[in-house]
Amino acid sequence: MLDICEKLSNMNTSKIVIFAGENDVSNGQPISLIKDIIFKTAQCIQDQTNCDIFICKISPRRDVAVRDFNFMLEDVSSELPVKLIDCYNYFVYGNGQ
């Protein structure tokens, strides 16, 4: 993800949406490591551009629970000037399934 920041500094865009961590969570990467990468990437994008940054929560998955990861994304969004997109709840029925 850090390679992306360099490329973004040369682009003319006003909004960036980060969809991150789905494969890492599925592969069992520690949430703290993923948080560090997302945090550094968002900071880098913020330093290199003048864009609005959005981070998207992970939708429910059959292969792994993503709630802890999504809580981490909430923490990141509270620590940085980014907006959080809650995709998770759009895939959950009223009965919780």
UniProtKB/TrEMBL annotation:
What InterPro entries is this protein classified in?
SGNH_hydro_sf (IPR036514)
Recorded protein name is Uncharacterized protein
Upper taxonomic classification of the species? Answer: Eukaryota, Metazoa, Spiralia, Lophotrochozoa, Mollusca
